[in-house]
Amino acid sequence: MISKKFSALAAGFVLALGVTACSGGGAGDTSADASVAPEDATVGVSMPTQTSERWIADGAAVESGLKDAGYDVNIQFAGDDIPTQQQQIDSMITQGVDLLIIASIDGTALSSQLDAAKAENIPVIAYDRLINGSANVDFYVTFDNYQVGVQQATALLTGLGIVTPQGEGDATGPFNVELFAGSLDDNNAHFFWAGAIDTLQPYIDEGTLVVRSGQTTIEQAATLRWQQEVAQKRMEDILTANYASDLVQGVLSPFDGASRGVITALQNAGYGTTEKPMPIITGQDAEIASVKLINDGVQNSTIFKDTRKLAEQAIISAEAYLSGEEPVANDTKSYDNGVKVVPAFLLESDIVYKSDIQSLLIDSGYYTAAEVEAGQAE
């Protein structure tokens, strides 16, 4: 179902692999004579879950691109269960994979697995989520996660009319808003939050934005495992405790699944009518169900992180290591995992409002118009 979106990129993957690498040392023995021919190499790919269409798409893109480049692939999904992911990675190492690409569930829970990989000279690429507390993370491919948070906050301010693409808007508030964050065990959640709060705090300080719940720390706003039902329950509790007579007018949501949970809570409370308009609600990942909600005027925006480009960059980086070289990094300062600063390649993301669906999602081939209309990928 998902793979059709990425099949057109296969030729691009093959052409791009190896051309962006520069010589240098990596994990273990990565000298030129340590290179591994594609037909002799197996790449282990560890993805966190299949409950999110985003991770299904990532897994499909990485697997397809690696196979098209000639590598064997051992891909596993861990069902959002940390011990399962640990066991799966241990098994990959035991089976003798030549490289690991890991999107971790908990960025602090894989130190022993990375130690074992180091002992076997297996390079480790962290995929979209930084792995913390280990010196044995060799490279990181991700989006500019602080900027994603800035974009989410900007989308909220734009939706409320406080700012426009050209600068300051006409709306002065005060506006009642509530803040949601991602899962505390995901390093990205902290970058998203930092970017968003740095952008929103001046408006909170001056009273343009009012957080009636008073829940303004990431610990208070966190959504365990990014789960939709967790976000829904928290929104229900916030509405009950703080909005008996007032209306919430904006919600900073870090992820489309959480956004749908927030929307369900709001709809159950009577929002979405003339008397109780749906608040401005942000999101992330351009999940098809949420793209339809944006197209229908229910959700205001999402952040599009084109996972096709992320998968391509992961494959380019893997090819460099397997060729005995070192992948190119465009950030060597931002991602300190507590033990080392991990070299990274950062990709750019886009804000998607209703007016951007055609140009960013349909024209690029990410979704079809029929998929957007149906809210379901074919």
Strand content: 5-15%
Q: CATH topology of the largest domain, anyone?
A: Rossmann fold
- Uncertain residue segments: 1-33
Structural class: alpha/beta
**Number of H- or I-type helical stretches:** 14
Second CATH tier, the architecture of the largest domain: 3-Layer(aba) Sandwich
- Give the strand tally: 14
CATH superfamily of the largest domain: Response regulator
- Average the pLDDT over all residues and give the rounded result: 91
Q: Summarize the main sheet.
A: 6 strands, parallel
Give the helix level as a range of percent. Answer: 40-55%
GO molecular function, one term: carbohydrate binding
Signal peptide: 1-21
Keywords: Signal
Subcellular location: Cell envelope
Any chance you could write out the topology, listing elements then pairs?
Blueprint: H1 4-7, H2 10-16, E1 42-47, H3 53-68, E2 72-77, H4 82-94, E3 99-102, H5 111-119, E4 124-127, E5 139-143, H6 145-160, E6 163-164, E7 167-168, E8 175-179, H7 187-205, E9 209-210, H8 218-221, H9 228-242, E10 250-252, H10 256-268, E11 280-281, H11 288-295, E12 302-304, H12 307-322, E13 344-347, E14 350-352, H13 357-362, H14 369-374
Parallel strand pairs: 1-2, 1-3, 3-4, 4-5, 5-13, 8-9, 8-10, 10-11
Antiparallel strand pairs: 6-7, 12-14
Helix pairs in contact: 2-3, 3-12, 6-7, 9-10
